[in-house]
Amino acid sequence: MVRISVWRSCIALLALTLSSTVAALERGRQLLITEQAVADSILSTVENALWASDGSIAEKPVYIVYSTECGWSKRLYEQSRQLGDKLQLRWIPVAARGADTVVTERSGASVAAAFAGQFGSAPDKALAKRGVDYNYAVMNSLSFQFKPYYADNSFAFPTLIYQTADGVKVISGNPPSIDVLQQEVLTQPGKAGLQPAAVELTAEPIVVHKSPRLSAYVNLNSTSAKVFAAPDLRAPQLDLLAQGFEMPVTGIVANSPWIEVAPWGDRGPKAYIQDELTARLALLSFQVKRSSGNLVADKPLQIRSHPDLSAPVLDTLEKGYQLTKSGVVELNGEIWDEIILYTDGTKGYVAR
Question: Which of 5, 112, 247, 285 is most buried (most C-beta within 10 Å)?
């Protein structure tokens, strides 16, 4: 996962690990993404952010990830006034004062006011914070998706993203000429009435149930698990959790197959992994009647993570081997022996 700090120099530096070396960003760098799946994913990430529309030609959108207090972003805004109504800029604020008002009002007037230093007050501060946090995750997601193309770990404000006839264009920093936008942006009538998913996804706080028995999510699947910024497949993807790796768990999203994880620690932003079985098992309610002695296998016995026949098999106790018992569970007509599987105290369950 990545950790991001935003500087007023308009460059966000991404530290992939505590010891990573962060390279300087080449401002004005341009990237044309022609791989369809990657291009679609990047475009979907910005389309579903909380952007503010600036300009009336909505079928020619340009997405701009920026900071309201970035001088280079303000310069782009001033230069773009000469474009008139030749396209629509969709501003995605991720940091600094005024961002909360922009994500709430989502208007060209709010963008202009923030650049002018006129910072209003969002009527619903909690809603506004969720919106700014979502857009911050959009920046994280773009950085994750740019990894195959960029050698350094930086993110420039502003970053422009738009569809051209040849693919999705990304400009890190200010473009060499503002006129290039009206020449390159593809007309897309279907994008004019686009409603970003972030409006729905940030409308209410996420309800999470604590799970005392699941302190960490371990990816036991054969493929990497996708990590999202919100419990929805439309949300920005932040990373991949490889098979066998784990992340700390903070809870289970109510009435859903989503697990809330804390890749940045308890005080950092939360992320979400979709795993219906693990989410259900994490909320499985059962009591353990204390027991002692050893469980001796008279045949190979499967040791599961929970007292449930659909739970993952953690290990197999071969015939003639034994493990220490710690309890007995009766659940849904089945009786299970709880055993101490590993020296760290990890419990496992064996059906009788």
Answer: 247
